[in-house]
Specification:
The protein has two domains: 5-109, no CATH class; 128-220, no CATH class. The radius of gyration is 21 Å and the shape is elongated. It has helices spanning 5-20, 36-46, 52-66, 71-76, 89-109, 121-127, 129-138, 143-146, 150-160, 163-178, 183-192, 205-220. 64% of the residues lie in helices and 0% in strands. It has twelve helices and no strands.
Length: 224
C-alpha cells in the first residue's frame, strides 16, 4: 500500500533527506567518524532548518526499530523502502542506528559543521536549488538547439520565471561567488548543478557566473 504524502512526510520525510544525501557517496561512517555525506547533511540542515536534525534522529531510530528481525516486526515494517546506498540488508539497521547516534551527539554537543564549500552532489542542490534549476533547465546539452546563445537562454529564464525566484537566484549567486573556490572548483560547481555546455567565450565559469549575477542585479534595479 502506497503512502500518502502527509503520512510519508510525518514518518519518513527527514529520514529520506538523510539517506538521499548518501546517493553517489560512500556510507563509510564509523562510531567516531562521520562520512562526507552525513557531514554535508548536517552542514546544510544546521544552517537552514536546525530543528530538523532532531526529527531525523527520531525517524531513523523508529525506522530501524521497525526492521528488527521477527515475525511481529516483519508485519509492522513500514511500507517505505529506504533509497539504496549500497549496503546489504543485514547491515542497514545498524547503519541507521549509527547515523541516529551521530545526529544525537551533534544536537547534544552543539557539534555543527562550519559553513564551507559543498562536498556532495546532494549538498550542491540543497544549498543552491534555484541555480540548479537555471543551469540544469536552461543550460543543458540541448541549449544550442533551443536558444541562439547563452544570453538568449538567460533572457528566456528571466521572462518565464517568477520574480521571487529570480531574486532567490540572485542571492544564491552572491553566496556562491563568496565561497573560497578556485576556477576548478567553479567548473565542478556548475557541472554538479546541471550545466552541460561551456560558458560563452571568453569567460571561465566564475566570470560567467559573475556576469549573470550582474545581469540579475540590473533586472531588479528600480526605474527612474
Amino acid at each position: 500500500m502506497s503512502l500518502k504524502p502527509l503520512e510519508h512526510d510525518r514518518d519518513y520525510g527527514e529520514l529520506d533527506q538523510v539517506v538521499r544525501a548518501y546517493l553517489g557517496q560512500v556510507a563509510d561512517d564509523g562510531p567516531d567518524q562521520r562520512s562526507d555525506a552525513l557531514t554535508a547533511y548536517l552542514r546544510h540542515t544546521w544552517h537552514t532548518r536546525p530543528w530538523a536534525v532532531a526529527v531525523a534522529e527520531e525517524q531513523l531510530r523508529e525506522y530501524a526499530r521497525s526492521r528488527t528481525p521477527s515475525r511481529r516486526r516483519a508485519r509492522l515494517n513500514p511500507p517505505y523502502p529506504v533509497p539504496d546506498v549500497g549496503l546489504p540488508d543485514t547491515e542497514a539497521r545498524s547503519w541507521l542506528l549509527l547515523l541516529a547516534d551521530h545526529l544525537k551527539r551533534s544536537v547534544e554537543n552543539g557539534d555543527v559543521p562550519p559553513p564551507g564549500v559543498p562536498r556532495t552532489h546532494w549538498e550542491w542542490h540543497a544549498r543552491f536549488p534555484e541555480l540548479g534549476q537555471l543551469l540544469g533547465g536552461w543550460f543543458s546539452q540541448d541549449m544550442p538547439k533551443e536558444f541562439a546563445d547563452h544570453d538568449t537562454a538567460l533572457a528566456d529564464y528571466l521572462a518565464t520565471t517568477d520574480p521571487v525566484l529570480v531574486a532567490r537566484l540572485s542571492g544564491e549567486l552572491t553566496e556562491l561567488l563568496t565561497l573560497p573556490m578556485d576556477e576548478a572548483d567553479y567548473a565542478r560547481a556548475v557541472a554538479e548543478l546541471g550545466m552541460e555546455v561551456e560558458p560563452p567565450a571568453p569567460y571561465a565559469p566564475s566570470g560567467w557566473l559573475t556576469l549573470v549575477a550582474d545581469r540579475l542585479t540590473g533586472e531588479r534595479a528600480p526605474g527612474p
